[in-house]
Amino acid sequence: RYVEDRAMLVASIVIGLIGSVLLMDEPFNKTLPVWRFLIGFSLTTIAFPVGRNVVLGVFGNVLGPVNQGRWMGIIIAVSALPRVIGPFLALKTLELIHWKTWL
């Protein structure tokens, strides 16, 4: 192994956190500049697959020689639900509070 799993997971969390902070528009300005959106979105997009792959690898090691395919499928299906439902809930919340942004 070139990099330990724990180091990759921490790096993924830190990169995702930095990307998320860059995507916040209220503490900095009322508007979100395009460069901050692009950098924040890119960092978040890079962090997600790195962290997910590390967690799935560790989970596969914890399961051992049992039928891993079924459990990996359940994990991926459950993790897809927030990504499907989340944007709709976020948009509805932003509409309820009359949030204004350049997006």
Report on the structure:
The chain has 103 residues and is mainly α. It has three helices and no strands. The longest helix is centred in the middle third of the chain and has 30 residues.
Overview in brief:
With 103 residues, the protein is mainly alpha-helical. It has helices at residues 5-22, 34-63, 68-96. It is flat.
Topology summary:
Blueprint: H1 5-22, H2 34-63, H3 68-96
Helix pairs in contact: 1-2
Which characteristics define this entry?
single chain; 103 residues; mainly alpha; flat
Q: From the alpha carbons, calculate the radius of gyration and give it in angstroms.
A: 17 Å
State the share of residues found in helices, binned by percent.
over 70%
Output the helix-strand order.
HHH
Enumerate how many helices there are, as a single number: 3
Major sheet details: none
